[in-house]
Backbone:
């Protein structure tokens, strides 16, 4: 099985329809941790597929950024973390 890398995908899009399309697309690749931030475990082929699908959306009122996390990236938290995020592995990063 191909190894999955850890990615954070963030977006800033003005148009409601574009923003909704990007959010729906990303829900198929990872989990939402904030309104415009997703944690995504991606293989090389799934990252390529994500990038291709994002290009096909032809985003004109904003942008999407994809960050790959290295193996030393660790999550820490403060405050009231939702249960579905707290129960997962401890890897993440701060944008």
Residues:
């Amino acid at each position: 099985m191909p190894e999955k890398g850890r990615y954070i995908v963030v977006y800033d899009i003005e148009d409601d329809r574009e923003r909704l399309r990007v959010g729906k697309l990303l829900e198929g690749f990872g989990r939402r941790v904030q309104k415009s931030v997703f944690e995504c475990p991606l293989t090389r082929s799934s990252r390529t597929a994500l990038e291709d699908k994002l290009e096909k959306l032809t985003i004109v009122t904003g942008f999407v950024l994809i960050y790959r996390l290295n193996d030393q990236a660790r999550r820490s938290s403060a405050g009231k973390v939702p249960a579905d995020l707290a129960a997962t592995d401890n890897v993440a990063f701060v944008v």
Notes: The domain at 5-86 is CATH 3.30.70.240 (Alpha-Beta Plaits). The beta strands are 5-13, 31-34, 37-42, 62-68. The first strand starts at residue 5 and ends at 13.
